[in-house]
Amino acid sequence: MGESFVVTVKKEEVVAAALPMQDHWLPLSNLDLLLPPVDVGVFFCYTNTTTIITTTTGTVTTEPPALVRPLKEALAQALVSFYALAGEMVTNTAGEPELHCNNRGVGFAEAAADVELRCLNLYNPDECVEGKLVPTKKHGVLAVQVTFLKCGGLVVGCTFDHRIADAYSANMFLVSWAEMARPTKPTITTFPSQAQPCFRRSLLSPRRPGYIHSSLHDMYIPYSNLPPTKKHGPEPEFNLFISRIYYVKFEELNHIQSLANSESNVDVNGVKRTKLESFCAFLWKMIATSAKGKKVITRMGIVVDGRKRLYNDNDKKKALMGSYFGNVLSVPFGGKPVKELTENSLSWVASEVHMFLETAVTKEHFLGLIDWVEAHRPSAGLARIYCGGGGEEDDGSAFVVSSGQRFPESKIDFGWGKPVFGSYHFPWGGDAGYVMPMPSPVGKGDWVVYMHLQKGQLEKIEYECGHVFKPLTWEYLKA
Q1: Looking at residue 111, what DSSP letter applies?
Q2: Which residue among 54, 173, 191, 291 is the one 20 to 30 A from 371 at the CA level?
Q3: What InterPro entries does the entry give (predicted)?
Q4: d(Cα 398, Cα 207) in Å, to the nearest integer?
């Protein structure tokens, strides 16, 4: 289902912002400080780009440099507004990470792969993406790689420092970069104001005095309080983390949502479980079935974006938060014994999902989280879901779901058309799994789901629910 191939880097350089900028330091917000130093990858696949219609008189065949040049020029222009991405991380006198906005630039690599687009095994990104199509970041906070394939297609891959940008921020940059690269690109001075990133850290300043709800102590933990790392023997193959990409049909998603609401499962306002809540509940049940032992605790967290929650009563600040560049995330989670998750109905599990989500979808939650970080500085903090949750002795697996429903794949057109496929790629190396459902490029309400989970969990999901989670193939994408 794909073939092995070699990627050869032909050229490496550094792209800096097109305009000179004042050297300065940009502090990380309190919410940035909750992120460990991990990188996140994203990639976009494009079909044959060697022949592009450029005039009414015909076509012109382009060589790779003709495609790369506008990409680099547009990147240099985009970095004028997104200047944080051209900087580098340093440590300040308090021992905390801080961004030095020195326009050191972004690593930009041109590469070639001896494989055709249709032969990429997208179902197994560990084989075809990791270390090949998504670059390893050598310095700074962003790296870019353009890989030309022997069929004339190409892949644009990026790697971001998560401490600088969440998915919302990265998406904002990617769309702006693509708009700059198109022949009808706006100039720096006429670029849409709503696309200009906001780096105003004061929007996430702690309160004086602060107020911390007790629930936050159950959800987050300072690094200084982390339990000692357990010593393990060789990791069983069953527990090794691997990445897979599936597609889920609209009909299956609707069926799952219907089951999640099958017992009049509504809240006090009569609101039924959403598609995401239903999907998360279904996945939680499935992963629980792969656990060894009914008493084992299986945990699931869901990433919540706080932009719409903060300042929803202040139109000016609401607009600024809409373009805020940085991390505005919280990760509420639930932990249940395998016995409860497997023996209760999907509707019951969906209610549990809804209840723990409710704790983190308010303005007060995010303001309190900012205050919580301030109270523990300079010690960094971490969501407990990433380090064993509530501390039960019989501690099972954990995973986090991050909704990628705003993934702007269709907008990442650099001038040669929309990508035929794109996805985030996040084999982050932690002890918790990661799942991101995104809209399918095929449309029709389907989802594409990136999963980074234990091998045994994915094998169980495929065995039990192969009719729901189908391996991503080019045949599906072309349908």
Answers
A1: E
A2: 173
A3: CAT-like_dom_sf, Plant_Fungal_Acyltransferase
A4: 32
